[in-house]
Amino acid sequence: MTGQPILVTDRLLLRPFTLADASEVQRLAGDYEVASCSLEIPYPYPDGAAEAWIATHRPGFENGMHVIYAVTRDGAVVGAAGLVEVNRRHGRAELGYWVARSCWGRGYATEAARAVIEYGFSVLGLHRVYAMHFSRNPASGRVMEKCGMVHEAHLREHARKWGVFEDVDVRGVLHDEWRDRCTGPAIRECRVR
Predict the structure, then answer these.
(1) Which of 82, 86, 110, 112 gets the highest tally of CB atoms within 10 A of its CB?
(2) What is the b/e burial string over 109-143, where b = at least 16 CB atoms within 10 angstroms of the residue's CB?
(3) Does residue 183 register a pLDDT over 80?
């Protein structure tokens, strides 16, 4: 299998994480506001957790389980985006992303998510991409809407975050819907490093 390609959008470059990114991941994802909006991000973010997370990326990509990108702007990491739970048999994957709080409201999450969705459909040959967000985080739902994802379900107390059961909304987009709704290129360039 070839290496994980780099994705280039109008303002962002999405590349594989390296261990050199670990301290920045810990700092950015470890922000209370960022961690509180994601099911999987711990708070406080423990030492060594970023390195352990990054170490799973290459084997997961090579095994076809996931593809996770460092979202960068002008060379600096500003977040992460990827497809997890890739299921080739059913042609689906779950979209996930987070962006540093200092970058909220700039459209980076939408731009990165669109690039990852396009990668899933055009390179991985997926039929469906779906995503979930805490119902109390409508900004994440708006990112998904801007990516053409439609609301499919409201799951009451579906996930537990820090001991509290949270309502979750599910959104999804099918390959043909993406092609009909997508305006302009989500990825300007896709190259293997």
Answers:
(1) 112
(2) bbbbbbbbbbbbbeeeebebbbbbbbbebeebbeb
(3) no
